[in-house]
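Record copied across here:
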Amino acid sequence: MGTLAGTVDVSKSVLRIPPMRDKKKWWVDSVKLFDPVATDTPTVVWNPMLGLRSDIHRMNANLHFDLLDDWLVHAAFRSIRPEILRSYGRLFEVASSVSANSEGTLDLARRFGRTDAVLIPNGCDPERFSVESTANGPITVGYIGKMGRRLDAQLIEAVVAAFPDWKFVFAGPVLEKGYIEGVAARDNVELLGDVPYSSIPQLLTSFDIGWVPHDVDHGQVGGDAIKIYEYRASGLPVVTTPIIGTVERPMKGVRVISSADQVESFRSLSENCDRIAREPMMIPADLTWKQKAITILDLMLSS
């Protein structure tokens, strides 16, 4: 892949075995191996550990910090929380502008004194997706994403058990095998494992419903669920738990339902029909990656 005009490719392969006792330490150690920060080049930072670099304080050009998740509340990074805290502090101090993809990450920025942070939700590339359905056979409920403690295992088990004649497809890497063993053993559940992103649009055409069964009490990490935008770009009706952003920013076709009421919600969706109809919508321009990039560039130019 070539370098986009007007940008600098600073990618670098880091070949080092992570510490086996705490693999998350790799995030701390690998930062030391990156190429020097291009201090005279306007920079967008997504890696929240970049603040551990000493050269980040020598920036002579604008640096924009775009927040994707709140790593301070992310259970997976608990062991490196002191380093995350230190890195966040430095990045928020140096950044000329800050954006947050959700109310959760916006709150993170404000806790560090960045009241100027701007909410720019995630989105998708709508042109990649088709609202045409290839679904066949049993009604198919699909989930795209990592399989781990972010999911509400009890909710999934309850819904899967309530609809034995439906098919439930989970596409994504399994982070914790023991966490979903009960669900994986059911005949109406299919685990596809990690699916290349280029194959996701086609896979979504085979679903009837897009599902986000996230645990709102223990599984949230402050981000904005990209999968919801991709489900809707495919015309899929969506059922989600009330995760960050879904209540604050309602979207047509997205049913925000508590875990206790989801079985009934699925039942009402499928009432008196063999196949659940698509619910197409025009994805607003401000929920596209193109517009997000434009907004970030505007912030950098004006700061």
The radius of gyration is 21 Å. The chain has a mean pLDDT of 92.
